[in-house]
Write a structure and sequence with these properties.
Layout: E1 7-14, H1 20-30, H2 36-48, H3 64-69, E2 76-81, E3 86-91, H4 99-106, E4 111-117, H5 124-135, E5 140-146, H6 155-169, E6 177-181, H7 205-211, E7 223-226, E8 229-231, E9 243-247, E10 252-254, E11 258-262, E12 266-275, E13 278-280, E14 282-284, E15 288-293, E16 304-307, E17 313-324, E18 336-340, E19 343-356, E20 363-365, E21 375-388, E22 399-403, E23 410-416
């Protein structure tokens, strides 16, 4: 897939007032991705507040409560494009009480930009967001040492912060870290390089975003195809047609490939790969397709077609890291629903092994209840067998959500370990 057609999702994270919203505003402004009326509106607002220059953070801080407090509460999404790529940006909250917002935004991101105020260095919030990024498996991390204009663009300050951050991030298994000094307020090393950080020889932020490789972020080895729908058109032309619709979550498949249907374990061969634009000979993740098989097999929604040397797990119990999202606490005695890929099954929490303090990374042993924003390791039993991989192997088949049966609200998000 060429860079011209790739979509890169990234989020910004960091402590309160590190300049996340200003950074996104600068990206949008300097890449010519905002309309004149938007610029005019925030210019008038900035002037009313007595500011000498345009407050670019207003482009993302949309909630009234955020504008009044000067902080980001909800996840604000913005879209822009360059000649090389299309982008979706998520501006995530810095406060600990909005951990759930950070987790949900990071779960689909290819990259996270973690901002650090050059005057303050690595803070508790920096460590927390780095841990959350590692927890949800964000493949690429950019450490943006912002507000370099406040420390006279000092190379020594940048190197000190960079070293401290890498000493923390490396043990978490984060390998792909790029460190960039910048001033989002003045625009240095965001879109343009500027002329005040000549000692830094690496790419500016947008240059890095445009060129970083994300092809390998998808598992291209092991074929995984959760069946979403059984297609049986009631027309004379397609009277005998039986297709299995869904999205390829990992790997690839070709006409004639032998696949295994789980959890039944039956095997067959792919007869056709059907799309709205005609039949294909081969399809790849993350394409949505309809597959037909050479054999008539009893298959239903939630079954999974697989192929490859590394077989997924089929089990009614598994261990997972769980982020509790709901204001109502988890009750171990209650039954919940687990939605994993296209299968939904009733579940019970058989045990809560420990809770993670996201500020210190300390583990607090056995607890009986989880509150909003808590992260814990749990064991879950489900009524029907699930077909899954570990989250490290495949984010799609290794993740799930927990639903409250009574309210139908999503109360937790989990990563299978």
């Amino acid at each position: 897939m060429s860079n011209a057609t790739q979509l890169l999702r990234f989020i910004t994270a960091g402590s309160v007032d590190d300049g996340k919203s200003t950074l996104i505003g600068r990206l949008l402004h300097d890449s010519k991705s905002i309309f004149e009326d938007q610029l005019s509106a925030i210019s008038k607002t900035s002037e009313k507040r007595g500011m000498a220059s345009v407050d670019l953070s207003l482009l993302t801080d949309g909630l009234q409560a955020e504008r009044e407090q000067g902080i980001t509460i909800d996840v604000a999404y913005r879209y822009f494009a360059t000649p090389r790529r299309k982008y979706i940006i998520g501006d995530t909250p810095g406060h600990e009480q909005y951990t759930r917002n950070m987790v949900t935004a990071a779960s689909t991101a290819n990259l996270v930009v973690i901002l650090v105020d050059a005057r303050k260095g690595v803070l508790t919030q920096t460590r927390r967001h780095t841990y959350l990024a590692s927890l949800v498996g964000v493949p690429h991390v950019v450490l943006a040492v912002n507000k370099m204009d406040m420390v006279d663009y000092s190379e020594e300050v940048f190197n000190r912060i960079r070293g401290e951050y890498l000493r923390f991030a490396t043990p978490l298994g984060i390998e792909n870290v790029n460190c960039i000094p910048m001033s989002a307020l003045n625009g240095d090393m965001v879109v343009d390089r500027g002329d005040r950080l000549n000692w830094y020889q690496g790419p500016a932020l947008l240059e890095l975003l445009d060129t970083i490789e994300i092809d390998h972020d998808v598992n291209t080895t092991d074929f995984r195809f959760p069946v979403q729908w059984i297609c049986r058109p009631q027309t004379q032309e397609y009277h005998d047609f039986r297709g299995y619709m869904g999205r390829i979550e990992a790997g690839e498949v070709a006409v004639g490939d032998e696949i295994t249907i789980l959890p039944s374990g039956r095997t067959s061969k792919v007869k056709e790969i059907v799309t709205y634009n005609g039949n294909l000979q081969r399809a790849y993740a993350p394409q949505s397709v309809t597959l037909t098989l050479e054999d008539e097999i009893d298959i239903s929604r939630g079954d999974m077609f697989v192929r490859g040397e590394a077989a997924p797990h089929v089990a009614k119990e598994f261990r997972a890291m769980l982020c509790w999202l709901s204001e109502a606490p988890l009750e171990k005695s209650r039954k919940y629903l687990v939605k994993h890929t296209t299968r939904t099954a009733k579940c019970l929490f058989s045990s809560i092994e420990h809770r993670v303090d996201v500020n210190t990374l300390d583990l607090h042993p056995v607890v009986d209840m989880l509150k909003m924003n808590d992260i814990a390791q749990v064991y879950i039993k489900v009524q029907q067998p699930l077909v899954f991989d570990s989250y490290d192997t495949d984010r799609a088949t290794g993740s799930f959500i927990v639903i409250d049966e009574a309210t139908n609200n999503t109360v937790a998000a989990g990563m299978i370990v």
